[in-house]
Amino acid sequence: MQNFEYCTPRTLGETFDLLGENDCQCRVLAGGTDLIVQLRQGALSVDRVIDIKHLPECKQLICDPIEGLTLGATVPCHRIYEDKAIVDTYPGLIDSIAIIGGIQIQGRATVGGNLCNSSPSADSIPILIAYGATCEIVGAAENRRIPVENFCTGPGKNILEKGEILVAIHLPPVPKSSGAHYLRFIPRFEMDIAVVGAGAYVELDDEGRMFNKVRIGLAAVAPTPLYAREAGDLLKGREVSDESIDAAASSAQSIARPISDMRAPAEYRKHLVKVLTRRALWGAINRARGEFVPNAVQNNDQ
Amino acid sequence: MGKKLYINTTINGEAVEFLCEPRQSLLEIFRDHLGMTGTKEGCNDGNCGACNVIIDGVLMNSCLIFAVEAQDRKIVTIEGLASPQGLHPLQQKFLEHASLQCGICTPGFLVAAKALLDQNPDPTEHEVRHWLAGNLCRCTGYDKIVRAVLDAANVAPNTETSLQSSN
Question: Does ipTM top 0.90?
Answer without folding.
Answer: yes
